[in-house]
């Protein structure tokens, strides 16, 4: 089971060929980076140099102008090579895609920041906080922004700042009292009062270095007060969040490929031939490929619906459902792969144990499973009541 069925354009083929050339380098340090909780800086550098980080920037701003479907294909591929690289660069791709598609900033700011992206800038939103939890649940940030003279002064602390070692810009959410709303401020890494507190010590996506961002009276120009949002971001239809399930689908594909290779090569002396000939092993392989097929078809179907201007208005909860289905399927696929490989999969030198840990991080990326199920129910009830 592969993604070949979903490769349709020359652009897709071109970029998949480019990414395939990075496979050896990306895979080489995965185990080491996981053990040391070290960010794969060289991988991200290679993607920037290849022009990958310009792809979700629209053509009119000098970028590649790719669609969500393209991004999903590329992100799945990168994550299959190295999960941390996939998740990390996906945030940049998704943020840029949403910003420019929805024109969330003033045109002059979009144009000037596009130049930064074309020169290699990397950006991610910094929104999560220890006291508020996921911003998709609508919590008010403890980070505050107050106007002092011609500047905004921002203080607070954000957690889960993925890609913190290499980000050039942080899109920081803060409560703006005088606006009675949540503002987003574009802050340069070199800003005085901005620092990274190295707090990331987890079992999954260890190399993402999703440390805390500390803001100690950081001064920001008015032009960098780029967004004002009075509602939870989780209520918005944003197809660019599909980079999240694409990452976990890539991990699942890697687990499947390892398990299948093991099955066709492992020949214990208790049987004649490889274990792939055993009915119970074939049952596991069949379950894995069925789960992978279901997840991939659903994800790409939703991405294609989002890219279709006529179908997009019909989307209700499909984006969240895609994340739910793919993430949970990915967890199941890794589990089945480990059952096939047996105790060998628990060795620290075995990639399956890393996939097992990394894939569970998806449960804690937005939107959360309980919110997705709740919204599905609410939508069904509302539709029933109005018809």
Secondary structure blueprint with pairings:
Layout: H1 10-20, H2 23-28, H3 30-36, H4 41-50, H5 68-81, H6 83-101, H7 107-118, E1 123-126, E2 144-148, E3 151-161, E4 169-176, E5 181-188, E6 194-197, E7 211-221, E8 225-229, H8 243-265, H9 279-307, H10 318-341, H11 351-359, H12 369-385
Parallel strand pairs: 1-4, 2-4
Antiparallel strand pairs: 2-3, 3-7, 4-5, 5-8, 6-7
Helix pairs in contact: 1-5, 5-6, 5-8, 5-9, 6-8, 8-9, 8-10, 8-11, 9-10, 10-11
Write up what this structure looks like.
There is one protein chain. By secondary structure, the chain is an alpha+beta fold. It folds into three domains: 3-118, Orthogonal Bundle (Butyryl-Coa Dehydrogenase, subunit A, domain 1), CATH 1.10.540.10; 123-233, Butyryl-CoA Dehydrogenase, subunit A, domain 2, CATH 2.40.110; 234-380, Butyryl-CoA Dehydrogenase, subunit A, domain 3, CATH 1.20.140. Helix content is 47%, strand content 14%. It contains twelve helices and eight strands. It has helices at residues 10-20, 23-28, 30-36, 41-50, 68-81, 83-101, 107-118, 243-265, 279-307, 318-341, 351-359, 369-385, and strands at 123-126, 144-148, 151-161, 169-176, 181-188, 194-197, 211-221, 225-229. Strands 1, 2, 3, 4, 5, 6, 7 and 8 form an eight-stranded mixed beta sheet that branches. It is globular.
């Amino acid at each position: 089971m592969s993604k070949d069925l979903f490769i349709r354009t020359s652009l897709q083929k071109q970029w998949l060929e480019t990414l395939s050339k990075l496979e050896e380098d990306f895979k080489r340090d995965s185990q080491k980076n996981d053990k040391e909780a070290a960010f794969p800086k060289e991988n991200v550098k290679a993607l920037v140099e290849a022009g990958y980080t310009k792809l979700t920037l629209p053509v009119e701003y000098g970028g590649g102008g790719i669609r969500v479907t393209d991004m999903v294909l590329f992100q799945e591929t990168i994550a299959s090579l190295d999960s941390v690289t996939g998740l990390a660069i996906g945030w940049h791709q998704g943020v840029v895609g949403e910003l420019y598609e929805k024109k969330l900033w003033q045109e002059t700011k979009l144009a000037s920041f596009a130049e930064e992206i074309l020169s290699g800038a990397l950006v991610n939103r910094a929104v999560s906080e220890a006291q508020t939890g996921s911003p998709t649940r609508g919590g008010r940030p403890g980070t505050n922004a107050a106007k002092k003279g011609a500047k905004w002064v921002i203080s607070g602390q954000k957690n889960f700042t993925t890609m913190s070692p290499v980000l050039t810009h942080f899109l920081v959410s803060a409560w703006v009292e005088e606006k009675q709303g949540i503002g987003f401020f574009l802050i340069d890494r070199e800003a005085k009062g901005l620092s990274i507190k190295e707090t990331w010590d987890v079992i999954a996506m260890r190399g993402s270095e999703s440390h805390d961002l500390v803001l100690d009276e950081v001064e920001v120009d008015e032009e960098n007060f780029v967004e004002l949002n009075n509602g939870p971001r989780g209520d918005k239809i944003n197809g660019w969040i599909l980079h999240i399930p694409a990452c976990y689908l890539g991990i699942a594909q890697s687990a499947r490929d390892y398990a299948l290779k093991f099955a066709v090569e492992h020949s214990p002396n208790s049987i004649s031939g490889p274990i792939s000939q055993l009915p119970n092993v074939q049952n596991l392989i069949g379950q894995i490929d069925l789960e992978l097929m279901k997840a991939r078809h659903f994800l790409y179907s939703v991405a294609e619906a989002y890219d279709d201007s006529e179908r997009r208005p019909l989307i209700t909860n499909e984006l969240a459902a895609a994340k739910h289905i793919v993430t949970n399927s990915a967890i199941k696929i890794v589990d089945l792969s480990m059952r096939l490989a047996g105790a060998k999969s628990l060795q620290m030198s075995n990639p399956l144990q890393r996939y097992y840990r990394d894939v569970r991080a998806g449960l804690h990326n937005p939107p959360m499973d309980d919110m997705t199920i709740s919204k599905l129910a609410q939508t069904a009830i509302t539709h029933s009541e109005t018809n």
